[in-house]
Specification:
The complex is a heterodimer of chains A (about 290) and B (about 290). Chain A is mostly helical and about 290 residues long. Helices cover about 70% and strands about 5% of the residues of chain A. Chain A has helices spanning about 1-30, 35-55, 60-70, 75-80, 85-105, 105-110, 130-155, 155-165, 170-175, 180-205, 215-230, 235-250, 260-280; strands spanning about 115, 125, 125-130, 205-210. Chain A has a two-stranded antiparallel ribbon with strand order 1-4. Chain B has a single domain, classed as ABC transporter involved in vitamin B12 uptake, BtuC (Orthogonal Bundle). Chain B has twelve helices and two strands; from the N terminus they run ααααββαααααααα. Chain B has helices spanning about 1-30, 40-55, 60-90, 90-115, 140-160, 165-175, 175-180, 185-200, 200-210, 215-230, 235-255, 265-275, and strands at about 130, 135-140. In chain B, strands 1-2 form a two-stranded antiparallel ribbon. In chain B, α1 (about 1-30) packs antiparallel against α8 (about 185-200) and α1 (about 1-30) runs antiparallel to α11. Chain B starts with a helix and ends in a 12-residue tail after the last helix. The chains are: A mainly alpha (about 290), B mainly alpha (about 290). Chains A and B meet through α4, α5, α11 and α13 of A and α3, α4, α10 and α12 of B. Chain B: Belongs to the binding-protein-dependent transport system permease family. LivHM subfamily. Chain B: This is Branched-chain amino acid ABC transporter permease.
């Protein structure tokens, strides 16, 4: 039971980092990306490759994963600067679909459909941190760091300018904000954090393949952020807990056959997304429009 | 010869895409609602047809059921999802997420009802025959092309000649002025959703008999219509249809040069390139950033 709970907590923490990083894009910057699993995947593959070829050091792997995801996030920043709204959603969808194909075909880097097997146990500065409770603590520390960074940045001038751009791009530009630089920075930062989450995921699972980085995963993360509440620090975490506990809770219900759990879970979160948008568009933890 | 064969099957796929994308563009053009649940209408229509033929009903009953379900779903989305959202806020983002949620709901309901696997309806029309040595073509090819052209001409005539069609075009230009002339924007938007959703039916039925259906087709069709609408220029019916045809042909033709796994990605490379270099699409007006 303890092992089961530790497992759930570790996954929740990793997804918490992922959702918080997506919230930076969707919530604060108004960049509505449905390609977040791509950067999660890039981080995971980069971290896994580094661990398998050089050293399984978590710090180095996180650096590598963050760098790769951050650098390639320029593919997402480019359309974000050119277009908005519907067009950008379409562009990020296109990017997601292309990336899945690349992930399953680029055997040298990703191992193709079979994925990368046998990722070594994680260590940190020479200490073994692979025991489940230790790894959970490490993940929690990373999550705390990510949240602190987001909070500090969003309280400061960077965050305020970003939110100004989200609310009215032309007004922010008229006030002399460098829209292109701010947006690019937000995208790179958010995607690099997703890359770090990917590295933790790769070490934790000791195996990665393309199945974890598909459009469905991107949508799941998006649902977490939206159901929890965008542009709040706590919202994405609420969403993560709800959506991860849902399948765990459903498996205790005797009248749902185990093979159908996936569909029932999807049904519930699809419905939750639609209903929330009608009745509470700011999400569960978000402030409703009247209080703002 | 391979090239020609691929071109022909590309045109067949493209005809289906074109009709579906035209429906999407019609809805977006008139109501400015980005109806991402359009793919769900497609899946519902396809599975309705499938269920009817499994029950042994004749094909036209299946088509009628598909039509009713698709149109009903489109109207219900308009009345129960989009209109309540637009009453209080109506930002693009909110509408998109709600529609996306409903697509997931439809997809999982289909999974629960029909399972996750591929299902195909058998039809004598899909038997491929050699028209010249080495070149195979099924009768369904002509059906697809004929339907696509005929329906497209009909819809264009409707939009240009009839009073309701002109009303639809006016709705996209200026809803307030429309109300001042005593026309109901609610009724017109319902018309747009009904007509747009009806346009998925031929594509859904043809797909059910040719390449087969699976629950994830809702998301695939949504992606294709979205891509076609953007490549064609958002809101332009002509552009969406042409882009749908183009995407179908590109998807099939790339098989001549690269592995088949890359074929579905090829369409999205086209989409991505268009967004970067020509965001207004083939026929769209310049986009206000």
């Amino acid at each position: 039971m303890i092992a089961y709970l530790t497992n759930l907590a570790t996954l929740a923490t990793i997804f918490g980092i992922l959702a918080a990083s997506l919230n930076l894009l969707i919530g604060y910057a108004g960049i509505f990306s449905i390609a977040h699993a791509v950067f999660f995947g890039l981080g995971a593959y980069a971290g896994a490759q580094l661990a398998m070829l050089l050293v399984p050091d978590l710090l180095l792997a996180c650096l590598a994963g963050g760098l790769v995801a951050g650098a390639l996030s320029l593919c997402l920043a480019l359309p974000a600067l050119r277009v908005r709204g519907e067009y950008f959603v379409a562009a990020s969808l296109g990017l997601q679909m292309m990336a899945v194909t690349v992930f399953s075909e680029a055997h040298a880097f990703t191992g193709g459909h079979g994925g990368l097997v046998g990722i070594p146990l994680a260590s940190l500065l020479g200490f073994d941190i692979s025991a489940p409770p230790t790894f959970l603590v490490v993940c929690l520390v990373v999550l705390a760091l990510v949240l602190v960074v987001i909070r500090v940045l969003m309280r400061g001038s960077f965050g305020r300018s970003l939110m100004a751009i989200r609310d009215s791009e032309s007004a922010a530009e008229a006030f002399g904000k460098n829209v292109a630089r701010l947006k690019t920075l937000a995208v790179v930062l958010g995607c690099a954090m997703a890359g770090v989450a990917g590295v933790l995921f790769a070490f934790y699972m000791a195996f990665v393949n393309v199945e974890s980085f598909t459009l469905e995963q991107s949508i799941l993360v998006m649902a977490m952020v939206i159901i929890g509440g965008t542009a709040t620090l706590i919202g994405p975490l609420v969403g993560v807990l709800l959506l991860l506990l849902l399948p765990a809770g459903l498996s205790f219900l005797p009248f749902i056959p185990p093979t159908e759990i996936g569909s029932v879970q999807q049904l519930i979160y699809g419905l939750a997304m639609a209903l929330l948008m009608i009745f509470r568009p700011a999400g569960l933890a978000g402030r409703s429009a009247g209080q703002r | 010869m391979l090239f020609l064969q691929l071109l022909l099957s590309g045109i067949q796929t493209g005809a289906i895409y074109a009709l579906t994308a035209a429906g999407f563009a019609l809805i977006f053009g008139a109501t400015r609602i980005f109806h991402v649940a359009h793919g769900a209408s497609f899946a519902l229509a396809g599975y309705a047809f499938l269920a009817c033929s499994q029950m042994g009903l004749p094909w036209f009953v299946g088509c009628l059921a598909a039509l009713l379900l698709a149109v009903g779903f489109g109207l219900a989305m308009d009345a129960f999802i989009y209109r309540p959202i637009q009453r209080h806020e109506g930002s693009f983002f909110t509408v998109f997420v709600a529609a996306f949620g409903m697509t997931i709901v439809v997809q999982s309901l289909i999974e629960l009802g029909f399972g996750r696997g591929f299902v195909v309806v058998d039809s004598p029309l899909t038997m491929a025959r050699a028209i010249v040595p080495g070149l195979y073509l099924a009768d369904i090819f002509w059906v697809a092309i004929g339907l696509a052209v005929a329906l497209f001409v009909l819809v264009t005539l409707f939009l240009e000649r009839t009073r309701a069609g002109i009303g639809l075009r006016a709705l996209s230009e200026n809803p307030e002025l429309l109300r001042a002339y005593g026309l109901s924007s609610r009724r017109l938007s319902a018309l747009a959703f009904g007509l747009g959703s009806a346009l998925v039916v031929p594509g859904a039925v043809l797909t059910a008999t040719t390449s087969g259906l699976q629950p994830a087709i809702a998301a695939q069709v949504m992606l294709i219509s979205l891509a076609a609408a953007v490549v064609g220029g958002i809101g332009s019916l002509r552009g969406a249809a042409l882009a749908g045809l183009l995407l179908g042909v590109v998807e099939n033709l790339v098989i001549a040069f690269v592995d088949t796994q890359w074929s579905s990605a090829a369409g999205f490379v086209v989409l991505f390139a268009f967004i970067l270099f020509r965001p207004s699409g083939l026929f769209g007006q310049a986009v206000a950033r």
